[in-house]
Design brief:
2 copies of one chain form a homodimer. Chain A is of the alpha+beta class. In chain A, about 25% of the residues lie in helices and about 20% in strands. The N terminus of chain A is likely disordered.
Chain lengths: ~325, ~325
């Protein structure tokens, strides 16, 4: 983050703070402390039957919707296929939840393909809308599925969080990929999509390569990398999106089969909102099953210990029937 | 990590890999996949009664000891007060476990003060021993307490992991603190210990200040910072160590009271093994209670969302009776 936001209050209560020595940025977000299961004792979780705020009929349990794709009904009424609402416990003002389906029992992996494609289209529509706010520099689309991955609500949803600055680690990646690209003349991720060895390939479609990355931080970390160069996810057209939806579902189903439906995090890495198309940055989807715990070594050093060689993960995932 | 280790095989099976674009390093450690509870299904944890490998009488359950402090007995026999053994599932060759007490029911927070001081002394002795191996550049001493923090064994223990290179994030911190120090003429951490506002102070002893850091990544993240400048933890003398043991236990007990005995990670941040005393780096202890889950946003951006303002954490911890 730029120094200009140090200590500045962004949301009513959220605040960016940059460590004066390392430059590491955090968001202090006391509004999030009110979430239903925040800090609840993990040893004594009793899942009381609560109504699901994301199910049709319970629209009043969320803040008013920002967007919906509907077959019937008016805003904040049933009849929607996909619904976007502000996060009730926002870390920042631009913190949205995309409710992917009215069906409480479906997940992104097993919903009908056209629905999955429409979810991806919805992500694109929200990115395009947020881009029009020139104060927003960066947006991350991410999913925490399963309690072990940080989810507090079971009903299938993805989150979108937009920031007034480009995060430090993203800046570093942008800089590193630019200098690599300027030296080699080729986008490093294009090279990755084309040249990843067979031993780390999970599957291929016309437009996408699914790989276990060379330096995977986590066991079974899996990336979906577009074969055609593009820095911004929301520039992908309709045909590409249908292809992506199929590959994304196929990948999630393979992970579910191989690992018995693990909790996972997903993040769509895409170029900064206000950046023009970049020659040497490449959007992609990263999927991180949450199989191992992160401990003091990782917090202390920033080095991740991954007990599963990426080649083994790719072998297991590529062998799974989707 | 230096590029020289990219892809190099360090342990029999462990391997450093550096992401070709970002420079981010990981350790691929398939030996660790054999740990008893690795990838076990968290939804159906059945804690079968196993014998504790760290209890007296079960010394044969661990690899032969590297060091012990004893009242009686020979190596790998009962009679020890503290015992250091190689990690049975090492991420790297220099991966040790310091068993802090023969008593299965004691923790670092509640053992007698002289025992806690002896544990710290043992850490120092191991650091000094590893420094004599010139191939080892960096060592981290860390503790994962509680299953939620990554611990697989309940009996009180700390780990020590030494690396053939200084991790990337530590290099960045060394560089940042050096350039800050050269510009200001004062070590940034000395300034932090002396000038932290009352609102972020938890407690003070003669030699140490306990604070909630300004840009805390995690709720109730707490640092123990020595008031006197020193870059290497193992240069602290006996009196300082007794003071530190008291402050450390006091801090842990306050955290236990305030948060009902949470899982936590602890890491001793100390200068690289082979570095001379550094004017602008400062050793310290970081304690991270594991209260919230890390999700897709954090993995994707490197930015942590902390729902507890450090000032609130400090207020709660400073008010706790120790």
């Amino acid at each position: 983050m730029a120094g200009g936001h140090d200590g500045g209050i962004i949301a009513d209560l959220s605040e960016f703070r940059t460590d004066p020595i390392t430059g590491r940025t955090v968001i202090i977000a006391p509004e999030r402390a009110g979430r239903p299961n925040e800090f609840q004792n993990r040893r004594a979780v009793s899942r009381t039957a609560r109504i699901c705020a994301f199910c049709p009929g319970n629209e009043k349990e969320t803040p008013p919707e920002i967007l919906s794709y509907r077959d019937a009904g008016r805003a904040d009424e049933p009849g929607w296929r996909i619904r976007v609402v502000p996060n009730k416990y926002p870390a920042l003002p631009a913190h949205e939840v995309i409710i992917e389906t009215p069906d409480h029992n479906l997940t992104l992996a097993d919903m009908p393909l056209p629905q999955a494609a429409e979810v991806l289209h919805c992500f694109q529509e929200r990115l395009a809308a947020l881009r029009r706010n020139e104060r927003l520099q960066f947006a991350t689309i991410f999913k925490n599925q399963g309690e072990g991955a940080g989810a507090t609500i079971e009903h299938a949803h993805t989150q979108l969080l937009a920031l007034p600055d480009v995060p430090w680690s993203i800046r570093q990646e942008l800089e590193a990929s630019r200098s690599d690209g300027e030296a080699s003349g080729v986008c490093a991720y294009c090279r990755m999509a084309r040249q990843a060895p067979e031993s780390r390939r999970v599957l291929d479609s016309e437009g996408f390569t699914v790989i276990s990355p060379y330096a995977a931080r986590f066991p079974f970390e899996t990336w979906i990398v577009p074969k055609d160069h593009g820095s911004h996810f929301d520039a992908v057209g309709g045909e590409g999106l249908a292809d992506l939806a199929g590959v994304f579902q196929d990948t999630l189903r393979r992970i579910n089969r191989a690992l018995e439906g693990p909790a996972y995090n997903m993040v769509i890495q895409t170029a900064p909102l206000q950046a023009p198309p970049l020659a040497y940055y490449h959007w992609r989807i990263e999927i991180i099953p949450r199989l191992n715990k992160i401990g003091g070594f990782e917090w202390g050093t920033g080095v991740y210990i991954n007990p599963t060689p990426p080649e083994e993960a790719a072998r297991r995932l590529s062998g799974e029937e989707a």
